[in-house]
Amino acid sequence: MQKISTNRVISIVTTLFVLLLVAKLLSLVLWWFLPSDGVELNAKNSYQVKYQRVDFKNMLIRTKVIAPQKKKVATAYSINSLLLKGLYGSQFNGFAIVAKKSSPKKTTIVSVGEAYSGYRLKEIQLQGVIFTKGGKEYLLALESRLTPQSKSTIKRVKSSDSDIVSEHSVSKEDIHYYSKNPSKIWKDIAIDPLKKDGKIVGFTVRRVKPHSKMAALGLKKGDVIIRANNIKLTSYRDAIQLYNNIDKIDTIELVVLRDNQEKEIIYEIH
Amino acid sequence: MVRKLINFFAYFLFFIFALMLFVPKDGLYFLLEKNLKQYDVIISQESLKESLLSLNVEHLALSVKAVDAALVEQISISLFGVYNTLKIEEIELSSLVEAYMPAKISSFDATYSLLHPLEIRAYSEGEFGSAKLTFNLQEHHLDVKLAPSKLMLKQYKNSLKEFKKSETGEYSYAKDLY
């Protein structure tokens, strides 16, 4: 066996010690330059005030009118021969889409003040309209209210592209179906984030499958969804939070940019 | 000459060992987190446990583009310089991802070694079946070989359409990442 001299041992130990020292110094340098804390998800507080449609003009009018209005509704007669297919507007501005029960597919648009089948349209309400005939008032409720359906009841109530506000009725079954099958959503619609200076400012609708449920909701290719229920959509999280809570809400208000104009789309979930 | 080379190699290994021993592993982990943030991938709620040559990250929530993507029970990162491993255990994907693949992944093991200096190799198992992944660091090319489970074949046919099926029944997926 070859005997290792003391000098050799000292040399090896010294070299190892120097290497340890260099490694320690290097790690200290690394420690100086490496970050001392990590990244946490800086999520915004998800608490939101429940979305409610507020129209200050209506509020002012209602303070004077709302009490007698209830009385009128209570004494109104129902019209059995007509169907209310849709409505738009509030109180004394707007129109109703009506049809006769004998020919339900033949619809007519009746503005407030106009007559239809002997009845004169007097007032638009949230879920129905009031007609007058012979000094009496008649309440005509929306068709979906009269005949609850189990299948899809998406109804486009107002369809003109120039409208600033459009309202739609969506069935809970559809919402439940999409919430349980998120992959089905992306078959009917494609949405990409719109970024400005690296930050998301909205979500652009890239594709809407024609004649799909999504197409019936009023969204069009090129629309930029910028707000949902008064929350600016500045991250995927904002959009997903709405999606996750969709079973718990009864109204969704989307604000979209269409042709550089803001358009409000309101969905009442029944 | 050979003796000198052996000595040099032995000292080199000792130096790497010492460096890995002293290097601030939590700092390296925080650096990794900051780099992942550039790709909108954020790891949060985690607890770090540093040992001599490895770092354990436990009970973490993974989010992609600020959307919850998965919950992970444990990640073990071992750095030996010439042979480095990253082991992930018990991954539970969020319900959103579940629409595209089964939620539970039992393990994901990735290795980087000097034997394959241009590749990161990984192997994963879960309810989806098993998969071998290779990522080429030079070409930024990802290659996946999937052996799908019965569940995957039955309920996630749409996801499997992204893969190419070979004659041997193996599913493969290739993509260049930039």
In short:
The complex is a heterodimer of chains A (270) and B (178). With 270 residues, chain A is α+β, with helices and mostly antiparallel strands. Chain A is built from seven helices and 16 strands.
Q: What does this protein structure show overall?
A:
The complex is a heterodimer of chains A (270) and B (178). Chain A is α+β, with helices and mostly antiparallel strands and 270 residues long. Chain A has two domains: 56-146, Roll (SH3 type barrels), CATH 2.30.30; 155-269, PDZ domain (Pdz3 Domain). Chain A has helices at 6-33, 56-75, 143-146, 172-180, 182-188, 213-216, 236-244; strands at residues 77-78, 82-90, 93-100, 103-111, 115-116, 119-124, 128-133, 136-141, 155-156, 165-170, 189-196, 199-208, 224-228, 231-232, 251-258, 261-269. In chain A, strands 9, 10, 11, 12, 13, 14, 15 and 16 form an eight-stranded mixed β-sheet that branches. A five-stranded mixed β-sheet of chain A has the order 1-8-7-6-5. In chain A, strands 2-3-4 form a three-stranded antiparallel β-sheet, with no helix packed on it. In chain A, a hairpin with a 2-residue loop joins strand 15 and strand 16 (261-269). The longest helix of chain A is centred in the N-terminal third of the chain and has 28 residues, at 6-33. The model of chain A is unreliable at 63-77 and 145-161 (pLDDT under 50). Chain B is α+β, with helices and mostly antiparallel strands and 178 residues long. Helix content of chain B is 25%, strand content 48%. In chain B, strands 1, 2, 3, 4, 5, 6, 7, 8, 9, 10 and 11 form an eleven-stranded antiparallel β-sheet that branches. The A-B interface holds A 15-16, 19-20, 22-24, 26-27, 30-31, 34-41, 43, 181-183, 235-237, 240 and B 11, 14-15, 18-19, 21-24, 27-31, 33-34, 36-37, 42-46, 61, 63, 65-68, 96, 99-100, 158.
